[in-house]
């Protein structure tokens, strides 16, 4: 069974990664359930922005990128206050080992500060949001809901469905027809897409 490591920290933006985590864990539309492992700086519980209490399964020190298949980073208040450096370093280790990293909203700012967006196509909440970090990767910014560049998947805070779709694409977990139906159902509320998604 493949493993998705999910970084957890105070004020984690639950909704941003919810669609992706459900699809990975259940495999309901892909036929391939994954193991989900939460990663904290310590094993002390954290409270998400939505008020859910999460006890990390493992700490950053326990994680070996080669033993996983994806690292997921959600937004949170920490990223906007210059925090999250340990998780940005972990993302760098994953990318160095050729293991995909999916970052949404504020997590993209943390990766920008760490230099991980330089030379890679990416997106976020807005180009100006990332430029405020002082990063050197603005030439690679793409005004899109979600962007895949090699092992890096990025999205802005308004695009949790597109984030999930892009991750499923990068991971090879659904074909284009099913991914389009997925977005049709969960983003556009298109009843005609439901039969394709379920089929």
Key descriptive features of the protein:
199 residues, 17% strand, alpha/beta, globular, Rossmann fold, 36% helix, two-stranded antiparallel sheet
CATH class descriptor: Alpha Beta
Fourth CATH level, the homologous superfamily? Class I glutamine amidotransferase (GATase) domain
Distance between the termini: 23 Å
> What radius of gyration results from the CA coordinates?
16 Å
Q: Number of DSSP strands?
A: 9
Order of helices and strands: EHEEEEEHHEHHEEHHH
Task: Explain what you see.
- The protein has 199 residues and is α/β, with parallel strands linked by helices.
- The chain has helices at 14-26, 77-80, 85-96, 106-113, 127-131, 160-170, 176-186, 191-198, and strands at residues 3-7, 35-40, 46-47, 53-54, 58-59, 70-73, 101-104, 146-149, 152-155.
- It has a single domain, classed as 3-Layer(aba) Sandwich (Rossmann fold), CATH 3.40.50.880.
- Helix content is 36%, strand content 17%.
- A seven-stranded mixed sheet has the order 5-2-1-6-7-9-8, with helices on both faces. Strands 3-4 form a two-stranded antiparallel sheet.
- Helix 1 (14-26) packs parallel to helix 6, helix 6 (160-170) packs antiparallel against helix 7 (176-186) and helix 7 (176-186) packs across helix 8 (191-198).
- The longest helix has 13 residues, at 14-26.
């Amino acid at each position: 069974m493949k493993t998705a490591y999910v970084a957890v920290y105070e004020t984690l933006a639950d909704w941003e990664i919810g669609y992706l985590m459900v699809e990975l864990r259940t495999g309901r539309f892909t036929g391939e359930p994954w193991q989900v492992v939460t990663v904290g700086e310590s094993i002390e519980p954290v409270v998400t922005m939505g008020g859910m209490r999460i006890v990390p399964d493992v700490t950053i020190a326990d994680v070996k990128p080669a033993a996983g298949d994806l690292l997921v980073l959600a937004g949170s208040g920490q990223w906007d206050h210059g925090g999250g450096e340990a998780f940005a370093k972990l993302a760098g280790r994953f990318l160095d080992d050729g293991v995909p990293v999916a970052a949404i909203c504020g997590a993209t700012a943390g990766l920008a500060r760490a230099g991980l967006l330089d030379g890679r196509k990416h997106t976020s909440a807005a180009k100006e949001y990332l430029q405020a970090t002082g990063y050197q990767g603005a030439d690679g910014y793409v005004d899109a809901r979600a962007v895949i560049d090699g092992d890096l998947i990025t999205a802005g805070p308004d695009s949790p469905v597109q984030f999930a779709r892009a991750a499923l694409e990068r991971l090879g977990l659904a074909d284009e027809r099913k991914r389009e139906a997925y977005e049709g159902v969960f983003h556009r509320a298109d009843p005609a897409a439901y039969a394709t998604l379920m089929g």
